[in-house]
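Exercise (ungraded).
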Amino acid sequence: MTPIGERINPLTAIGVALLVDLVLLASVDVVTAAVAVAVELLLAPLAGLRLARFARRALPLLTGAAVAGATISLYGRTSGAVHLRWWLVVVSDGSLALALATALRILAIGLPAALLLAGMDATRLADALGSRLHLPARFVLAGLAAVRLVEVFGEDWRTIALARRARGVGDANRIRRLPGQVFALLVVALRRAGLLATAMEARGLGAAERRTWSRPSTFGRPDLAALAAGLLVVALAVGLGLATGSYRVVLT
Amino acid sequence: MAEAAAVEARGWGWRHAGRRPWALDGLDLVIEAGERVLLLGPSGSGKSTLLAALAGVLAEDQGESRGALLVDGRPPRATPGRAGLVLQDPQSQVILPRVGDDAAFGAENLGVPADEVRSRVVAALAAVGLDIPLDATSTRLSGGRQQRLALAGVLAMRPGLVLLDEPTANLDPAGVTEVRDAVVSSVAATGATLLVVEHRVAVWADAVDRVVVLGADGAVVADGAPAAVLAAQGRSLAEQGVWVPGRSPAIRRAPLAASGPVLATSGLLVGRDRRPVLAVPDLELPSGRLTALTGPNGLGKTTLALTLGGLLPPVAGSVVPAPWLAGGLRGGPSEWRSRDLLGRVSVVFQSPQHQFLAGTVRDELAVGPRALRRPPRAVAARVDELLERLDLVRLADANPFTLSGGQQRRLSVGSALAVPPRLLLLDEPTFGQDARTWAALVELLLEGVDDGAAVVAATHDPELVALADGRVALEHERAVLA
């Protein structure tokens, strides 16, 4: 199965991820976050990501959630029974509950992006921004060019590192040679940007009053399905949060 | 089909912002609609500037112009899409990651209706003979295919004037032929006016019906049928660096006594990130010899050169230095410290810019000697000597990035020779050189050979290969000694 990110319009992916994130950012309780994570994980197989790829994308999220949870359990606001006290560290019922809620919130907010933005393609996003949102063509194409340049940065960086070794100045430790190498990359990148801009202008960039976006940027059933999934996550999470009386909005 | 465009220059000149001399001045030239013209002239005669102006990519804020330059009687920037330009470097002209999208880019910018864009893209890819799926990845195509893709993108704009700025200078011989043939057949089909800038006359002489020669100041010094112009001007063109058929630069070589290998390989498998690319039969690189490393692009010539030069570790097998090269160091060159490579092994990259480290040409040449903590007076003497030999004395205080392509290449070779290495490896050292800078570069390499260094050049250049004492030819996934 192809990843959902390749089947839906990039605008849908961003929109649904934003919808889920905004609602969950506003709520801070354990139940809402836990239900959201549970529903997201239940829906995850439908996103068409292989387990390995999903795990790779989710790994930074898990790490972030674990680190945040651990920190808050040690230092979070104390209330209820105290389990451990050592210097500034106080582990209590209150700090543990807050830690769990925070870790779950990070997962709940991050998972939609990890699932929906997999396979997001810069060209398709540019098409959608240009033909659907009618953003100015120059703005959209400049963004696209930037993506293209970032792709070759990695290769340039490696080449520059090898070239410095060849010149006899590659022995300094990484930190010390970093400024020089960053500067070299910057110079090479600026030159690449100049060449790319010339190539784009040579093909009539900005020539016509209205640019054609020849690839159709469409919305279809997969988009509806993604939207429905997003609404389901939000409705169940907030609904159960309210029903159990645990729902709390961030500002109150 | 778009009608062919006519070009007229009347006393036209252009000066780049921030420069005092005019890049070209007082140009009077008329090109009739449908003519096919090869534009020749020494480096710095403003050929590329003229093409850029005709393509409408020279903006008012990039410099000042005088006189008139007209396409179909109107300034080029007032007629977007009438002229399409293909540039020298294949990689930097790939705009979008998929072939079909890239070919459509120009036509989309002109506001051509979507259905017509799609049919034009199919027709343009067929016209340049690119028989690959529309969703193929454009960034990984060979240089020849990328240039044909750039041409297809231009053709999809249906220009009346096709401008080519050294489109084959960075290609292997197969790529040169495929691009030239694609240009000839597609221009014949559309009837568009063609204006080509190229140092290598032999590639284009049969494909054009007129040759125009610019002098050093940008004025026309010869104009006519290819055979007539080459007969009358061949000698002076060759002296100015144009590759005129039958007038390649003469390089004399004195035969040297054979000497032992500086480096040998054993069961070597080269690659990047431990992913194997190429299995190499056991090689010995003799000192005092020029060895050519040949074969199509994409097989691993660069990877092999970087491995022999101690910049990449072997995936398997070993690179074994002669004891007098190692001088007490253990292991292969890839295990040595960077500083220990100086005076032993040096690598010159394909793109000189990746290798520049200093703000002036003088400091660039001093990098190696200073890294070895040579006394300042010895460093200065060595640098002065190199500046002289590289013909860069006048540019000693210039920033390396502001030099021309040929000068940058000489500088990168010169800085690799600043601490004379026993083994010098170069990646496509002669790409894009005109005949004069080519000769200067080759003489520099041969001086290194005569001093007893093993010089290895990964190259497509038939003239350089002809000068080599030995050859390592790469075929698919293996290397062959020839």
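Further reading is listed at the end of the chapter. For now, observe: The domain at 261-481 of chain B is CATH 3.40.50.300 (Rossmann fold). Chain B has 15 helices and 19 strands.
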